[in-house]
Amino acid sequence: DDDRDPRTFQTKTLASQKVFQPDIFKGKVLFCTGGGSGICYGMVQQIMRHGANAAIMGRKADRLNGAATQLAKDANNGTRCIATPGDVRKYDDLKAAVQKTIEQFGRIDFVIAGAAGNFLAPLDGVSPNGFKTVQEIDMLGTFHTFKATIDEIKRTHGVYIHISATLHYTAIPWQAAASSAKAGIDALSQSIAVEYGPFGVRSNVIAPGMISGTEGADRLTPKGAEQMVESRIPQQRIGVIDDIANMGVFLFSDAAAYCSGAKFVVDGAAQHFPGPWLPYPDS
Ligand code: HXC
C-alpha cells in the first residue's frame, strides 16, 4: 500500500496522521511565535490535528485573528486557537501573551519560537539598525520567548522547538545578519537543553532547508529558478511546510523523549550538496 508520489516520494496523505494517533496531544497546549503564517502556521495546524489547543503570536493582529479562526476550523476536533498579538522584540508583549494563554487554557506544554525577520543585503549595505533589527527579532525574540515561558515549562515538563536554518553551517552571501542570529539561536537552544534538562524540559532546533510557500523561499529563490534549485537538492524537490510540521509533531511527542539539545535538519540532504559540480547520472 505504497501511497507515495513516484516523483517526490512524498506520502499523499499527511505523514504525521498516518504515523501518529490523532489524540497524542490531547490536553496539551502549544504557544507559538510567528504562528500567523508560513512554516509556523503549518506546524500549529498539524499539532492541533493531534489534539492540542494553541495560542499564536505575531505582529499583525488582523492576520493573526484570521489565522486563529482558520486553524480551529481546520482542526475540526474541538481544539481551540487564540490570537495573542505582539512583537517578540518587546518582553512585555511576550509576558502578556503567555499570561493570556495560561488564563485561557490553564497551561503551556509546548513552545515554538518561530518569529523571524530577514532581508537580502550585502553585509556592508546593512546599517547598524538593520543588523540590530534582525538580531532583535530572531535572537532576542527567542530569548524573550524562553524567559516568558520557562517557569510554566518547568512546571509542565514541556518542550521547546526553535526554528533555525542551515545558512550558517556554511555561509551564503547576503544573509549574514540572519545567519549569525540563527547560530545564536542554535546555541541558546542547546543551553536550555543542558540547564533545564534536569527539570524534565527538552529543547531542540529544527533547521529547515528551502521550503516552498514561505517568505524565506520567496526571498531566496530567484524567480523562475525553481527547477534549477530542485536539481541541486539530493531529494530532487523543494521542501513543503508539512515536512517541517511532521518533524514538529515527532519532537513534541513522547517518541522523542530522549531527543534534546539537538539540531534536526529537514532539507532533503541539501546542506551536504551545495554545488552542482557534476550532474546526477540519469536516474
Ligand atoms: C537593507 C534593510 C532592508 C533591506 C530593512 N532594512 N530592509 N536594510 N536591506 N532589504 C533596514 C532598514 O533600513 C532599517 O534600518 C532597519 O532594517 C529596520 O527596518 P524597518 O523596516 O524599520 O523594520 P521593521 O518594520 O521592524 O521590519 C523588520 C524587517 C522586515 C526584518 C526589516 O523585513 C520584516 O518585518 N520582516 C518580517 C518577516 C520576515 O522577514 N520573514 C522572513 C523570515 S525568513 P535604518 O538604518 O534604515 O533605520 C527567515 C528564513 C531565513 O528568517 C533562512 C532562509 C532559508
From TrEMBL:
Bilayer-spanning residue ranges: none
Alphabetized UniProt keyword annotations: NADP, Oxidoreductase
Superkingdom of this protein's organism: Eukaryota
Enzyme Commission identifier(s): 1.3.1.124
Entry keyword Amino-acid biosynthesis: no
One term under GO cellular component: peroxisome
Protein name in UniProt: 2,4-dienoyl-CoA reductase [(3E)-enoyl-CoA-producing]
Organism whose genome encodes this protein: Meira miltonrushii
Taxonomic path: Eukaryota, Fungi, Dikarya, Basidiomycota, Ustilaginomycotina
